[in-house]
Structures are given as C-alpha cells and as structure tokens.
C-alpha cells in the first residue's frame, strides 16, 4: 500500500477533504457532503453554496407591474448577480418572494403562512422582506441579504429530507450580529409543520437576539441560542450559560446541531478566525427534549408558532442530514471567511452630510409647495416659502445627523426643537425627544436613496426597508407600495415618496 493511501480512519474526513484537489473551490455544501453530512437545505440570497450551483438563488417581485425575476450567481459557485436585481427593481420597490433551496430537495422558503401567532397581513400571512434592506459585498461583489423586520417571515411547512423525531441534524447561518432585538424569535431551522406550538422538543433552530425570557448567556447579549420550543437554550441550564458569549461581530457564523441526547452551539466572526464551542453536551433536563420530537418544517425569521416580533438579517444558511463533525464545520467556517463578507453603502443618490440643515419638498404634482414640517409632535407637510414666517421655516428645517441606530444612514433632528427627531411609531411619523433607547434609535434612522420616481431622494426606514417617508393627506407615514394600510395606496406612491432635498429654510 502506498503511503499516500494509508489513511487512518480516526483522522477526520475534513483533513482528507481539504487536501482533495476537487474541493479547492468547494462550497459549504460540498464540504458537508465530504463529511458525510450532506445539506438537505441550502438557502442564500448572496451566493451559491455548492461549487457547481448556477441555478436561481432567489426570486424578487416588483410592485410596479407585479412581475417576478430570479436572481442567479454571476458564475457557478459564485456571488449573486445584484445588478440583475438593481436593473429589474429600478424605479419601484421589490420584495424577496422565494429563497430557493440549492440542495435539490425542494425546500424553497416562501411567505410564511398564519400560525398560532397570527400574521399581520389581511390573510394572516407574514410580510415579505424588502430586496434592498441588507446590501453587502462578498469579495468585492455586491449582493443582498434578507433583512427581517418584525412581522416578516419565511417558511416551508413540510420539509423534504429534514430531520424528524430524534434524528441527527446540523445547521449554520451567517447573520448580521448587530441587527437583533429581544422579541420572539429570529430563528432559522427546524420547526413545527402545523405553524403552532406543539410542545417541548418540537423544534431545533438557530436563534439570535437578546431575549432573556427563557435563557441567556454572558453579558447583555445578543446571544446565539437554540430554539427547542418553549425555550431558547444557551446550554444545559434553562436559565444561563456563562460560556455563551455576547456577540458583537458585524457578520456572525451561528451553528446549532443535535443528535440523541446531545447538542451543540458554536459560533465565530464570519470574516475571520475559527469557530468556538459555546455548548456541547446533554439535552435540557426537562420533559420533551430527550428524545426530541422534531417535525421537519423550515422557518426563517419567526418562531415555530409564527411568533413575529423579532428582527435580524440572514445572508446564508444550510441544514444537514446527520450530525456534522466539528472538523467539517471548521472547514465550512474557513469557506465563509474566504467568501469575504463586507459592509457597503446603505444609501444612494444625493449625498447627505451630518451637520447640514435640509428641507424636503414634495414632488407630487399639486403638492410641490409643501415641505416636511411638524405641528407639535405630528409630522406633516405644510406650504412653506422663503417669505413664510421664521417660525414655520424652522418647523420645516431638519438638521442631518449620523443615523442613531446605524452610522451608514441618517437621523433628522428638529431645528426648532433640538433633541427631538423624526421617528416612526405605528407607521406614522412623529417628532419625539430622543429617549436614547434602542427602539427610538432604530425608529429614528432613515436611509436616503435615489428617488423612486427618478426625481430627488426617497428615504426608507432603516428598520423597515419596505417602507419609505410618504405624504398622504398631508401627513407623513412610512409606507410600503401596495401594503395593507390606507397610506400604502399604490396611486402616486413613487411621487409621494420622492422628495427634493434643498438647503434648510433655517439653519438654527
Ligand atoms: C447580471 O445581470 C445583468 C442584468 O440582468 C446581465 O446583463 C448580466 O449579463 C448578468 N451577469 C452575468 C455574469 O450573468
Ligand atoms: C435588549 O437590548 C436592548 C439594547 O441594549 C435593551 O434596551 C433591551 O432591554 C434588551 N432586552 C432584554 C430583554 O434584556
């Protein structure tokens, strides 16, 4: 026997597989397959997860005419063709309607149906994500992640090839470690087929956020935990695992895997370094978790019963058949690092500069004498001109500030009421004093972009990228084109959300 072929069986498959020439350009799912734990679901809007995959990554639907298109990689195994999306969606809004399963098992994720916890749309279905909420680059190529606002969710009820009962499985997801909340539950993984809570052990999914209702880790969060149903677990103790760290990485690799009476949590910065194990041990010592009763649905952005209060961003993720070895996951992490995720601009069009004073003029025909102003705490449009009283001019002038929740976007502070900012609340815009909460910061952060009508700038809500500053009956809302609210009406939408930005009527 030649020395080359003398493989020691105890050596991990992954050592062999990284040495194998055919896996030099491998995708994550090629690596899982080489470890004998193949992907049975592979979801990503940013890149192909198999070296040979050149099929559709996701589908977008544009509001202007209801047409859909599929977005594919630039080349087999490559990054998504973001230009195809940008071209298709120019001058209108687009939603992500399908996240295709690259594994060939048919586990495509679509708009999540109503569940034990009802969705917000008229028919009870969850919202779909904006196609532009999470722009990034991979190796310098632009791509878009899935920005999940509260009430947004994707699902396939009857998964194909997913683990059921106590069967072993693994999963990873690359997430935005800075986009989270404490609502239930920003999940990716295995859940109930009925969209209802069917009891302990009926789920096994990645959770990311700072909910402390069930469990928590070290520090203030956010944490990676496992949603095993009726509990987010950071380790053996249902309450706390001090080895489960707070996450601050902008791009975060999250791993959950489980097999009979054994499960693990692992994580890493998705742009550098290797995985750490936060927990590796027995199932929770409570009825229902050993053995597990996994059902095999797949969810993204919601809880198993369709709980819709959470937010987060998903870039890519897979689920496997079988319990992946740590070694296989380590080479998958190396592959993710090599994909070179990086941030990119959240804005486009007219340049906004912190410190400037601006006024925003309506461009809708018949309303062009009106500017965004406020009357007390109500944000409205008012007729303003250079000969208006100084008081009104100040009410219609806004100091541009670095975005309170994201420094890639902006906040608008009142010139006549310093310390108060434009923020949205129940989709209406208000002028409120900054209370320095995470909620306020997020509700007061807006991302300007080239005007949807082709004129001026449109300004989307950072936390709800399907929604733009819109005047409707002379009041201001964050509106989505063709959404369920009256102020979401399609008529004159693109004009109503396009603003001519001028120097402020008043600068102090
Ligand atoms: C990307 O999409 C654009 C617009 O649809 C298209 O013209 C171009 O050929 C695509 N690029 C590749 C490499 O397929
Ligand atoms: C989650 O984090 C935010 C921001 O730090 C904080 O305001 C909120 O209270 C935290 N939630 C919990 C449940 O600790």
Automatic annotation (TrEMBL):
GO terms for cellular component: extracellular region. Keywords: Carbohydrate metabolism, Disulfide bond, Glycoprotein, Glycosidase, Hydrolase, Polysaccharide degradation, Secreted, Signal, Xylan degradation. Residues 1-26 form the signal peptide. Residues 361-501 form the Alpha-L-arabinofuranosidase B arabinose-binding domain. Residues 28-342 form the Alpha-L-arabinofuranosidase B catalytic domain. It is found in: Secreted. This is Alpha-L-arabinofuranosidase. The lineage of its organism: Eukaryota, Fungi, Dikarya, Ascomycota, Pezizomycotina.
